[in-house]
Amino acid sequence: MPKLSPHFLQLPRVLALLLLLHMQSWTLAHAGGDMARGEHSSAERLQAWHKLMHDLAGASESQQLQQVNRFFNTHIRYAEDIDLWGVSDYWASPGETLERGAGDCEDFALAKYFTLRQLGVAPEHLRLLYTTLAGNGQAHMVLAYWPTPQHGALVLDNLDADLTPVLQRQDLRIQFAFDARHLYKPEGETLRAVADAALLPAWRTLLQRMAGAQLSLAQLQP
User: Fold this and answer.
1) Is-above-0.70 flag for pTM?
2) What is the pLDDT of residues 180-211, one digit of tens each?
3) Which helix (H) or strand (E) holds 129?
4) Burial 39-65 (b: 16+ CB within 10 A, else e)
5) CATH for 8-220, among 3.40.50.12780, 1.10.3080.10, 3.10.620.30, 3.40.50.2300?
């Protein structure tokens, strides 16, 4: 098991500061530029994210899940990686997704995951699910939340405004799941850890990129 940066392990404490730093630097460089859904600039989206964090501090996890799902489904439009980043597959950080105002299904799921971690949702409750759509076999990533190991998961999906029990999502075929540490294989209604999450190159690269940014941010703090 590779050792994660201690700054990544402190993600709930520093992610808000990191995104605010992104907001300040990107706004200076791109003032008056990108608009998402024709409504919000990158600075406005990041300010709205900061307000969301403030408003949901201390809220129930049920409220946090619903509001975070709604926030990203409302503020971010769907776009392919090739159009946003010029490559076929790129996993963006929450700051990058909010700056662009767009992302694919992976970026929606990742932004929700890191935001809920920032709000204090325990990591054992959250898994990123790599699925395929039953109708056409298209790959699709969603975030899942398990209130307890004995209860079924709720799905946070950019295709669905509601939180739906995973057992009711007959359109999803779970291929595997992962979190910061493990890859999981679906077995019935449960997940079994089978490998190190570092085997996912895009996930490993994203965590390293975020950890490096947080290290730089920590060095700037008085």
Assistant:
1) yes
2) 999 999 987 789 999 999 999 999 999 988 88
3) strand 126-133
4) ebbbbbbbbebeebbeebeeeebeebb
5) 3.10.620.30
